[in-house]
Design a protein that fits this description.
By secondary structure, the chain is mostly helical. It has helices at residues 7-20, 25-32, 36-43, 51-61, and strands spanning 2-3, 71-72. The longest helix has 14 residues, at 7-20.
Length: 74
């Protein structure tokens, strides 16, 4: 199995879960201490989410960092 997630997809997945949980982007930015404008760019696939950012987002949304990645057959 190969783990496959592109950067744009990752931002969109984070944004979808954030929205599903009813967490505003502003609240997520405040909870993670990621500047709001930076977070919006990341959620729109513009730029890479760092490991640190992904860990902070995961913690704020109460999910495992590993949950952002899916396994697909090679």
């Amino acid at each position: 199995m190969v783990t496959q997630t592109n950067t744009e997809d990752l931002g969109l997945r984070v944004d979808a879960l954030r929205s599903e949980l009813g967490v505003s982007a502003q609240k997520l930015a405040a909870d993670t201490q990621i500047p709001y404008a930076t977070l919006l760019r990341r959620l729109n696939g513009d730029g890479l989410l760092s490991v640190s950012e992904l860990k902070r987002i995961s913690s704020a949304l109460n999910v495992s960092p590993a949950s952002w990645f899916t396994e697909v057959a090679a």
